[in-house]
Amino acid sequence: MCYENARDIPGYITEKIFDSFFAGCVPVYLGADNITEHIPKECFIDKREFDTYEKLYKYLKNMSDEEYVTI
Asked: What is the pLDDT of residues 28-58, one digit of tens each?
């Protein structure tokens, strides 16, 4: 999980998402609205696409190995 300390501030991207990449993880990101101007959307899971944590959990739980590898 990569949640920024502040949300909706254009360009406010800290080390959190990069630390996940360096660790070999697929980050679930919540932060800058314009994150896709800096990081390709295929490289992370955007928490904003899920209305609830339950929907996010179901998505992660049911993600295939192939889908995980492509992110």
From this structure: 999 999 999 999 999 999 999 999 999 999 9
CA gap 71, 66 in Å, rounded: 9
Q: Read out DSSP for 19-60?
A: HHHHTT---EEES-TTGGGTS-GGGSEEGGG-SSHHHHHHHH
Phi/psi of residue 10, nearest 5 degrees: -55, 130
Rounded distance, CA 39 to CA 21, Å? 11
Predicted confidence band at 19 (pLDDT cuts at 50, 70, 90)?
A: very high
Please tell me the pTM assigned to this model. Answer: 0.87
Q: How many domains does the chain have?
A: 1
- Domain range for 12 is 2-70
